[in-house]
Write the structure tokens for this entry.
Amino acid sequence: PNDYTMDWALYEVDPSKIKNFSGNVIDLGQEVSPLKLSEALNPNIKNPYKFVYPVDRQWKIENICIPLDEMRHPKEFDQNNTPALSVLKRGRTTGVTCGVANEVESYVRNYGKSSFESKDWAILGYNKSSPFSARGDSGALVVDAEGRMGGMLTGGSGFFNTTDVSYATPIVALFYDMQKHGWKSPNPDVAP
């Protein structure tokens, strides 16, 4: 896993500052109804039903990454019977949103007046009336309907009438890069 956009920082957290940590979760909030989330994350009856809305709205993130091969070749289908992976994220700006990741990878990124080559996981917004991500959502974790970690949001194309593409660096690529720089055991779900 290389050639992906790398934008991460690693912090050591003082365990005495964290009380009652039972693992990483996404607070699903109240912006999107349980029915709408279930429809977005379970869009095709051909797929096994994976997302179940938690009663306390705290959706447990599994300590498992979506394999790169599955990101490139999804085993499930969207509402149009196209191979795709239904995903969700909670961002600072847009809150909880759903998207669809298909076999497309992005290879050129534009930042202002500069551009560079980089692979990224492309995610299309599920809701055509609002974006999957916006400025300020960078760094949000993108997960699939099983709660498996997929990627870290790094940007988007902007929301237009016909397109809404966001970009994420696959978590497996980030963990690989972190290990390359000395992090010995990537375990994002370590309780104190």
User: Anything to note?
Assistant: DSSP finds three helices and eight strands in the chain. The helical segments are 34-41, 68-72, 171-180.
